[in-house]
Design a protein that fits this description.
binds nicotinamide-adenine-dinucleotide; Rossmann fold; 3 domains; 6-stranded parallel β-sheet; about 15% strand
């Protein structure tokens, strides 16, 4: 198989040309003949014009590549080594939605020939490839697994927005269904992964390895989020604590934050699903999900609470000043009342009359992907208090945001806000100064800096971070 691929006697197909499939297909297309297969015609049109729909790759990445982009099963039929990289999301009940995976498997099953290979890259729970995909390949093709065709699993480790940990530079796990297939699959991937491959003993092991990489991150971030809630009650800044603790050799500096996207916030649910089938209820994994999924609501509530407290405090402060000037204790009391009234009159004590600017809506920094963004939870929670919310983001597509989450984005900030939530500190925002924040805020306005990136520059504004 390997020799025939690198001598262009056989073709390789990548099914699903998204964040994972496209870079992989383009990399293989430097070395062999590749069929890029997808069902999204709009994206295929862009790809034929050397444009990456997810804006991760520049047009130069498409140059001198031996690849076609197609949705035609007749073209797909010409391949012998199929790599499946389609989405594996969760449904509204947080259980695995295998529809895209099984539909892509069906497309491959219909064109499968004796001697072919099918490699899965989509993230799944341990056992899914053999339990769900292999039976479909067998029943539709009429061929026998191992005897007639081989299957492998090789999880992807790319990190969108991170050019350093690219496909070429990151060790790739490969697995097969027997020694011969493992050897062929390893050799095929070694042609594009400079860092080399790790040969896992079985597909189940490779599937489990991918899931625990993301589950470990999820649980660790959840611990930091829980500590952040606790430290907030104690009046301690979490980042100051982490910086101090990180001076110990074996402390791992995870930081609190929103866990969105289609990997870390999704993959643990695949594990929970499989565990439930085995009559085991994994407490650690599920509680990590619980904590991380509730952070958007928590941040919104803290914002409202702080807007109220800050406004009241500034009113009281003004009143006390007036009272002190009058030189009497009674004056102070009157001043507090007057201060409260000033706040009330300005209408700033009610979240319903407050304006909040949210900066960043993508699931993480420096990417345009908005899937499973937890910033939407903040928006919904604030709207439930009837707070006026403007959302801006230099990366996100406003139409896609409206389609996915049902709210319109603002073109740009307008007027003064009672609070700014720096939700996703894209590089476009990183150079903001305290004066830039002040220009957008009412006097005594609040900055909620979820990732804590502005904590050293904001000195005389009301400031809060996780
Ligand atoms: N994006 C990441 O950072 C990342 C990292 C590691 C693993 N993964 C995993 O890789 C898999 C793919 O993720 P992604 O981010 O590349 O998804 P994606 O949504 O960016 O791309 C998937 C592509 O598959 C296409 N597709 C869907 N159904 C299809 C079908 N039946 N036939 C052909 N094409 C079809 C879509 O049109 C889309 O172009 C998922 O299982 C994901 O969990 C993703």
């Amino acid at each position: 198989m390997y020799n025939q691929l690198i001598t262009n006697k056989l073709k390789l197909a990548v099914v699903g040309l998204g964040y994972v499939g496209l870079p992989l297909a383009l990399e293989f297309a430097k070395k062999m003949t590749v069929i890029g297969f997808d069902i999204n015609e709009r994206n295929l049109k862009m790809l034929r014009n050397s444009q990456d729909p997810s804006e991760e790759l520049g047009p130069e990445t498409f140059e001198n590549r031996n690849i076609i982009f197609t949705s035609d099963p007749e073209e797909l039929k010409k391949a012998s080594f199929y790599i499946v990289a389609v989405p594996t999301p969760i449904d509204k009940y947080n259980t695995p939605d295998l529809k895209p995976l099984l539909s892509a498997t069906l497309s491959v099953a219909k064109v499968l020939k004796r001697g072919d290979y099918v490699i899965y890259e989509s993230t799944v729970y341990p056992g899914c490839t053999e339990e769900e995909c292999v039976p479909l390949l067998e029943s539709v093709s009429g061929l026998k697994f191992i005897e007639d065709f081989k299957v492998g699993y090789s999880p992807e480790r790319i990190n969108p927005g991170d050019a350093e940990h690219s496909l070429q530079k990151t060790i790739k796990i490969v697995s097969g269904c027997d020694d011969e297939s493992l050897d062929n699959i390893a050799k095929v991937y070694e042609t594009v992964v400079e860092a080399g491959v790790h040969r896992a003993p079985e597909m189940k092991v490779a599937e489990a390895a991918k899931i625990i990489e993301n589950t470990q991150r999820d649980v660790n971030i959840a611990l930091m989020n829980e500590l952040s809630i606790l430290f907030n009650r104690m009046g301690i800044n979490t980042y100051d604590v982490i910086n101090a603790a990180a001076t110990k050799w074996n402390f791992v500096a995870y930081t609190p934050g929103l866990v969105g996207g289609h990997c870390i916030g999704v993959d643990p649910y695949y594990m929970v699903h499989k565990a439930s089938e085995l009559k085991y209820h994994p407490q650690m994994i599920a509680s990590g999900r619980f904590v991380n999924d509730s952070m958007g609501g928590y941040i919104a509530k803290q914002t409202v609470k702080r807007m109220l407290a800050g406004n009241q405090a500034s009113g009281i402060h003004a009143g006390i000043q007036a009272g002190v000037q009058a030189g009497e204790h009674a004056g102070n009391q009157a001043g507090i009342q007057a201060g409260n009234q000033v706040g009330n009159q300005a209408g700033i004590q009610s979240p319903a009359k407050s304006r909040v600017l949210i900066m960043g809506v993508t699931y993480k920094e420096n990417v345009s992907d908005i899937r499973n963004s937890k910033v939407a939870d903040i928006v919904y929670e604030l709207i439930s208090y009837r707070t006026e919310v403007d959302v801006v983001d230099p990366k996100a597509d406003p139409q896609y945001v409206e389609h996915e989450y049902g709210f319109k984005m603002a073109d740009k900030p307008t007027g003064k806000y009672n609070a700014i939530i720096m939700a996703v500190p894209h590089k476009e925002y990183r150079s903001m100064t305290q004066d830039d924040f002040k220009a957008l805020l009412v006097p005594h306005g609040l900055v909620v800096d979820i990732r804590g990136v502005f904590r050293s520059i904001i000195k005389d504004l009301d400031y809060w971070s996780l």
